[in-house]
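User: I'm putting together notes for a lab meeting next week and I want to include a structural view of one of the chains we've been expressing. I don't have a solved structure, so I'd like a prediction I can at least talk through. The sequence is below, exactly as it appears in our construct file.
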Amino acid sequence: MIPATIMKKALLVLPAALYGLAVQIRLWLYRSGIIKPRKLHNPVISVGNLTVGGTGKTPIVELIARRLREYGEAPVILSRGYKAIDISKNLLVSDGTNILMDWEDAGDEPFQLARNLTSTKVYIGKNRYISGQQAEGKGESCVFILDDGYQHVQLKRNLNILLIDATDPFGGGALLPIGRLREPIREIRRADIIVITRSDSPFDEETLTGAIRRYKPAIPILFAYHDVIGLFPVKEVDRRTDLNERRLNPIDIGEFFGQSVLTVAGIARPDLFVKDVQHFQIQVAGHMSFPDHHTYCASDVDTILAEARRLGVRAILTTEKDAIRLSHLYSDESPLYYLRIEARIMDEERLKFYIESCLGRFGA
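Assistant: Thanks for the context. Below is the predicted structure for the 364-residue chain, given as structure tokens.
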């Protein structure tokens, strides 16, 4: 008898082959110049990955937006708005001072970026060239950040940043739907910079950098990791519209050392969240996983709370993205907190050099 896992993979071989063919034809059309990418007037920095989910993209986008602001630039984020209510429209999620859309309409990741970044406009829409035109129509100088833009070859970019997760670089090495690759590994060659995320986790650096340089020998490789800012009650993820409102101070994660918790995550790789929590010597008594971008309902919360009571844990810990999707169901008696993380680049001066160079500002 053929094992079910082998049978399942065999059934996916043809869809994966057809998907790969479609990807290659599309890239060839752009590479050969038969279809020409559109160009915005202002510079574009793209941040994306080869795999589906789980590379820590949102914190890197947030980091770049913050640094651009520090460099005196005006960052504008162009996002597709995955799971947004209608990506056929190009909409402004945040004008940099006020949040103009709820997470249900904007999608959880654009809402998270809008919520965490002041003085940064966030647009959603399938056609990010149109979003960029809307921003440029106001006559302001800016720098666009193309969120999850590696496969969005329709738009020209000045800097193409590819993120690769140290803990699972190539998603099993197979294309969707067998593996997690959106396109073949050799498309690393389109990148200008590689950022290896979660590089504080154990991984074979020599093997990974060797695999990368096989396709583009001289490409700069930077290393990034996540830094925990602290814990916040989920009620902090409210529907606030004024980004200048005062926020509560975070709870030091050290207060939970040795404590027992239940973890809850509806993200691409929930195992990584569990490891993040355990890294701080917090005892994970139980874990509940939901699909990526899951929209929580009241019965989900009832189940989560019941499990927390059964385990007798001190608290329930979740991710910031999950907190956004749980906030409308929060009750004051729920011991529910989210982990706020920010990305750190180990050699930020190099990142600054590449950004300023692509903007034509270096040495000015």
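A couple of points you could mention at the meeting. The chain has a mean pLDDT of 91. The chain has ten helices and twelve strands.

User: Perfect, that's what I needed.
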